[in-house]
Amino acid sequence: VWLGTVAHTCNPSSLGGPAGRIRPQNVETPWSLVPAGVPHDGRKRVRQLAKLAIIFSHMHAELHALFPGGKYCGHVYQLTKAPAHIFWREHCGARCVLPWAEFESLLGTCHPVEPGCTALALRTTIDLTCSGHVSIFEFDVFTRLFQPWPTLLKNWQLLAVNHPGYMAFLTYDEVQERLQACRDKPGSYIFRPSCTRLGQWAIGYVSSDGSILQTIPANKPLSQVLLEGQKDGFYLYPDGKNHNPDLTELDQAEAQQRIHVSEEQLQLYWAMDSTFELCKICAESNKDVKIEPCGHLLCSRCLAAWQHSDSQTCPFCRCKIKGWEAVSIYEFHGQATAEDSEDGSDQEGRELELEQAPVLAPQLPPRPDLPPRKPRNAQPKVVSQALV
């Protein structure tokens, strides 16, 4: 159906090229194939083709996520963010796809949605495949983009609906094209959901020398990234406009997650002449990050070194790493602490209970060579076109 739409929408002869069959592999980089002198109407059609290509890419990613190796696993799909996973399984059970109307009603039990234009805009953002349904995969992508969970729709409203720098269904080349008009205004920027790393943001900006660069920030809420970039002088003018929205109300970051370590677990590690909080890869630093969605713990330097070696799976269970969160670990201090953690849900509402470790732990990888720490105010890491 979609290929038929593409063939009907974009007639190759109207772009000055020979008429012929349109194949899926030909819709990957449409902007790079368009001559600069193509009339506006032709470029508009190529823009439509680019959007359809992105939708095809979303469909492919969704099928790959729900049918890895050709085997259905939607009923056991693990959402990256724990609160989102709990919400889906409690309200949707083992289902992996819901009609939009039903999903909207269920989401409203936690995050009320205003009917009308707001609900329509939300549907446009979540429904990546434009199917009129919401899959567990699409919800996973949405909750990663607009984290944290407690202010999910508020984050979406301020970042996607009201922010002039937000661009949907835009490709790498189109970002370069749009920012050309702002090359004499360093600090101009726009941001979009990454086309290939779904669940992550891609930010294009004009550097101090007029170059147009693009970066994919990882493992931070977008509001925090934009505020830090504004402070460092990178993200000042959304889409070239002088007014940069104030996102400080979204910068109320969730407190670091705390992991309870019981007395029994401490005794077990002491018997091995070790401690629970010690990173089991380097045996030097304490654990301070939790890999998502599997939940394994290690120190941030080892995680950085592990990912620097181009490995995108957990070093313990080989589950795909979709993200990570900072955590802090504190010891069990008797019955009073246990009772406080149960009764004081308002004060310690973000604490985590550590699950029982499996009897047969997976083999640990060899200790990696740890890279030097980056300067705090380093320029955002620029990524190539193939990654965004």
CATH topology of the domain at 44-148: Recoverin, domain 1
Question: Which shape, going by the Cα principal axes?
Answer: globular
Give the radius of gyration. Answer: 23 Å
Proportion of residues in extended strands = 5-15%
Give the N-terminus to C-terminus distance in angstroms: 27 Å
Please identify which CATH superfamily of the domain at 44-148 we are dealing with.
Answer: EF-hand
CATH top level class name of the domain at 44-148: Mainly Alpha
Contiguous runs where pLDDT drops below 50 for at least 5 residues: 1-35, 334-376
- Across the major sheet, the strand order is 9-8-10-7-11
Helical fraction: 25-40%
SSE-based structural type: alpha/beta
How many helices does DSSP assign?
A: 12
Indicate the mean pLDDT. 78
Q: What kind of sheet is the major sheet? A: 5 strands, mixed
DSSP E strands, number: 11
CATH architect. name of the domain at 44-148: Orthogonal Bundle
SSE series: HHHEHHEHHHEEEHEEHEEHEHE
EC number: 2.3.2.27
Domain RING-type: 279-318
Domain Cbl-PTB: 1-249
Enzyme class: transferase
Describe the structure.
Residues 1-249 form the Cbl-PTB domain. It holds the Pfam family Cbl_N2. InterPro entries: Adaptor_Cbl, Adaptor_Cbl_EF_hand-like, Adaptor_Cbl_N_dom_sf, Adaptor_Cbl_N_hlx, Adaptor_Cbl_SH2-like, Cbl_PTB, EF-hand-dom_pair, SH2_dom_sf. Residues 279-318 form the RING-type domain. It comes from Macaca nemestrina. With 388 residues, the chain is an alpha/beta fold. Among the domains are: 44-148, Recoverin, domain 1 (Orthogonal Bundle), CATH 1.10.238; 163-245, 2-Layer Sandwich (SHC Adaptor Protein), CATH 3.30.505.10; 260-329, 2-Layer Sandwich (Herpes Virus-1). The chain is 33% helix and 12% strand. It contains twelve helices and eleven strands. The protein has helices at 2-9, 40-66, 82-92, 100-107, 117-126, 136-145, 152-161, 172-179, 222-231, 263-271, 300-308, 335-343, and strands at residues 97-99, 133-135, 188-193, 201-206, 212-215, 237-238, 257-261, 289-292, 297-298, 323-331, 352-353. Strands 9-8-10-7-11 form a five-stranded mixed β-sheet. Strand 4 and strand 5 (212-215) form a beta hairpin. It is globular and about 75 Å long. The relative contact order is 0.09. Mean pLDDT is 78; it is low at 1-35 and 334-376.
